[in-house]
What we know:
Elements: H1 2-27, H2 30-35, H3 37-63, H4 67-88, H5 99-125, H6 127-138, H7 141-154, H8 159-181, H9 190-209, H10 221-240, H11 242-258
Helix pairs in contact: 1-5, 1-6, 1-7, 1-8, 3-7, 3-9, 3-10, 4-5, 4-9, 5-6, 5-7, 5-8, 5-9, 5-11, 6-11, 7-8
Amino acid sequence: MLSYLQAPLLFGLIAAFVTTIGLIVVARSATWTERNASTFGLAAAGMLATLAFLHIIPEAFHLSQQAPIWLAAGFFGGLLLHNAVALLFPERPGRKPVNIALTPIIAIASHSFIDGIIYAVTFASSFESGVYASLGLILHEFPEGVIAFAIMKRAGVSNMKAFWIAFLAAAATTPAGALVSAPIMFMLEAEVLGAMFAMSAGLLLFVATGPLMAPLKETRPGRGLGAVGAGVAAALVIFLAPIHGAHNHDMDTVHDHDHGHAPGTDQPDFSQM
């Protein structure tokens, strides 16, 4: 069935393509990107924190009663991961610490993977819901590619390596999430999806307020706060876009649909799809 497997994968690939366009744009100006990587990081911090507060966390709390626990788990899990990487790869003279790039990249990769799962789940509700939800999520993809590349350049990674790491983390993970989850999407209950949303939000909040915000103390106040403000403004534009509102409605549909059961069975009723 098109709406069960091919469609989520197709839109996941479109999302990956949009992310790759963002990567190509910044990679063509790699020297300028590296010079302004800290500013990009601060803008990313503002954008990710705003999207987490306005979009991801409310969705998580709507879908799962255990969302606060998973939100805290994601945040403190990010803290543990960040420090574990620092212990495994100690800072060396002349080299930047690995954890300033690895923790944010893992956060972006996990969030993009969950985006792919959402494609599959919303297409399970209806083809129209899947299309609207996918269009809303694709709005995030271009800046994700830019952010991932800038993070790697800030860590001193070469242009080619930064491009491919950012591609794997921000682009390839979305169709991978759709492909992995499409065959089992009917088994994904709202509670499970809400828990994943909450963990993703917690991890993104740690990254936004920790590693990505770190350059603020060594950047001129006007430039640093201006970059954070630009990220917040970009997130608000994405959040207030009409398609994004349709995506929120579609997630409500999935939530209600997930609790509907066929008469006389314990399985969800997909007879109307």
